[in-house]
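Record 1 of the preview.
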Amino acid sequence: MNVLLADSPLTFEHPWLLLVALLSIPTAWFARAGAGGQSRAKLIGSVVTRSILLLLLAVALARPSIVDRGESVTLMVVADVSRSIPRELRRDGERFLARVEEAKRNEDDRIGVVTVAERSEIRQTPDVNARIVLDHAGDLAATDLSHAIETAISLLPTDTANRILLVSDGNETRSNVLEAIRLATANGIPVDVLPVEYEFDREIVFEGLRAPSRARIGQAVDLRAFIRSSEATTGVLRLRRNDESIDLDPSSPGDGVRIELEPGVNTVPIPVSMDFSGGHRFRVDFEPDDPDADVLGENNRHDAITFVSGEGRVLVVTETESEFMPLIRALRDGGLEVVVGGPQMVTGGLSTLNGFDAVILADVPRWSFDAAGDRALRAYVHDLGGGLIMLGGDRSFGAGGWIDSEVAAVLPVTLDPPQERQMTRGALALVMHSCEMPQGNHWGQVTAISAIEALSSQDHVGIITFDFGLGANQFNGCAWAFPMQPAGDKQAAIAAAKAMTIGDMPDFSASLQLARTGLNEVNAGQKHVIIISDGDPAPPSQQLLDGYVADGITITTVMVGGHGTVTDARNMQGVAEYTGGTYYNVVNPNQLPKIFIKEATLVSRTLVQEGDFPSVTLPAVDGPTRGVVRTPGVEGFVLTVAREGLAKTPITVRTEDGDDPLLAFWNHGLGKSVAYTSDAGSRWATGWPGWSDYQPFWEQVVRWSMRPPTPSNLAIRSGIGDEGRAVVEVEALSDGGAFANFLAGEGVVIDPEGRPRRLALQQIGPGRYRAEFDVEQEGAYLVNAIFADPDGDEGDAMSVQAAVSVPYRKEFATTRDNRTLLELIADRTGGRIYDPATDLAVVDPFDRQGLEMPSSPTRIWDVVVVICAGLFLVDVAVRRLSFERERRAAAAASASGSAVDAWRTARRRATRDRDADGGGREADVAGRRVELEPDAVSDFSVSDASSTGAPSEAERSRRPVREDTPTPSGDGADAEDMTSRLLRAKRRAGTGGDESSGGGRDG
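->
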């Protein structure tokens, strides 16, 4: 508990301990009672000293602090820059904020800026010289006001009073801003709001497209489009299926159908026929005849997905279809529906993949897919129960950059062989230079990590960056963020890539010289450098490039976010071409990881093995090779290692180093995967197409990997509910047609980026199960509902898939602002509502009224403790020093008394001796006033006042002796000496003419 004294900067943490000072009262009483013989002054001084000591001790125990109160204000601006706000209104907000910036009166007031769209970005930390700039590098098609408010609160300083100014239309698509408002209220931070108000009088919004989740081949269904229009209008409705247009009105020109919309929600039926199995991705869009009848074009479309049941549908993904024609023909001869396509079939999303029962990757490299496609392939197998077969080739498995990819985790083999297999290693140096593009450092990290992951564990890798702090060292500010070394498990290299700071190097000479030195220090067959840059550093010298050519080191240059000058592009391209590398001019940073994976694979260990290799086939009673006892040999394969655990390798190839996998398989999650490390017969397996069992062998392998058909006793429906959440409902029946209740089931939903998450399926009625989940991203969400088979053996499962499509962001679903929410924010936090025309000379954005000005306590109790300790020592010292003076005075008095006694004793002895020797000469002399000579006076005084009695022999030797004065001797020496001196004094006195005696002498 802190107690602040009124009008005082002093505060006490434990004020009740000040009562300790009352102990000074009994202390004074005890001091007086035990004073003894002490003087009054000493008693008063002791009591005062100890009372002050107790008072300071009480203050120290109460833990005092001096409070410094702040006087300045920090205004944190949170500006909504999402695309839902009309551009003109956004400019009005910018003009208002410019006036806010000019309205700052106190020179110590600060301004900070946070912009918000899909995510929050800190544009300006609180500063007295801050400028309000609303640039935003992220996606503008969403709004997360809650995170923006939390970010603003986290930036507010503690030494000022704080306000938040929110500029927004109040429409949010993520989280709930009222949660963050509770945090502001708890901290006493008022949130002022500037509402951005609008309402689109003429707007067309596609609110939904309803399609069956599943259908049968040949079935005719009606799609239903729901379109809301603010006024009556006409236009053309178009439909596309799997990116191909469907002519909805053959009698009219074009492929669309003309419709009329009434004000409100219009329902438009669209009949279609399901002519083939697999996934049917429908997209419907509406184009009004009058462009002014619609403000936002992003919300004029909608999507839906229907899965058509069928058997034996296989997708072959290849870039060289001719090389795999023997396999394609064999599968088609076996009654399988085979679709051949390129990598774009995978990048189209899971909605495309889920329309196939198995996918074959036929010598396709990793760099032909983006990260989302890589994730989608794994999710297709693990979460949707599909089958995956990877065929070999010089661009497949580890040779195709699949090491440490998502797909690599699906395969039944390990793609990175151990060190024992002696093969040529590669060495890769990454030169990272800052790029002038949004999130440049982020993309630098992503590309570096992608290149590292594509290498094998035995390849060497190093990362070079530029740091201004290194100064003019031998490499002009360039240094190894990760020194050249074997990649190993790659965790250290990846951690270094995440932690690196990418600077703006002035030239390439220093970094390339450093890279050349590092590459030449390692033993590698292939040495390669990749440069990522915006192109503005000065190019390397010709001498350095000649050195690269002589050393056999190639350089690939990747230009991203360049300044657009022809010179920069030519310099980057010239470096790559001169050294035998490749030049890339990247416009879309999403392409960077693919480029780096491809380039990193150039230096990877040579995993391709060519020669004459016989095959060894182990008899199997299950799996894809059941009943196969012999297979032909091959002339080449990609080196892999059999995976430990549940994976099986029934067919191997025999080499000098042992048996390596040729065909392996296993179950992965809900699906299955097969790895065949040679090709299908055009290059390495030329003897296979002529093998009598070629067609049944491959048909059996593919059919084993395929997903089982959807059970007829499961029906699934999916869509977007009234609250904007996705809803999935499944109806389950037993084989007898009765409702299947209390089934153990779960769901998996995979978002448009291929990331899975679990769903809880709850029974809501007889045989009915339901799950809900949030949808925020644009694209298709794939759902797989899995149940235990009530009529099957224990462990048997059945599943059914559906999709929920989000055609556009929530950002474009609204046609007006949400002022109600903004007023609620201001009301709950005690903030103000501004109007763009507000006179800021009257209404001060930095107003301190109602704000709790901050106080900063500085503890002083430790200083008081030190003073107490010093005062205690002073008290003790004062008392002890007083005692010592008294002792010295007593000792001095005792010594003086002893000296007087000794003098008196000696005087009496001398008197006795004189009396015994001469009688009354002392009286005669003593009764007269005489003037003694100086030496006599001195001698007399010494004799009379000395503490040692009679003069010592040394003293007598120093006295002047007259020639006519006889020197005494013997026992009467002292008396004689005294008598002689007195007589001489008497004579001198008489000679001087005593006035009383008339100048006569005593005879």
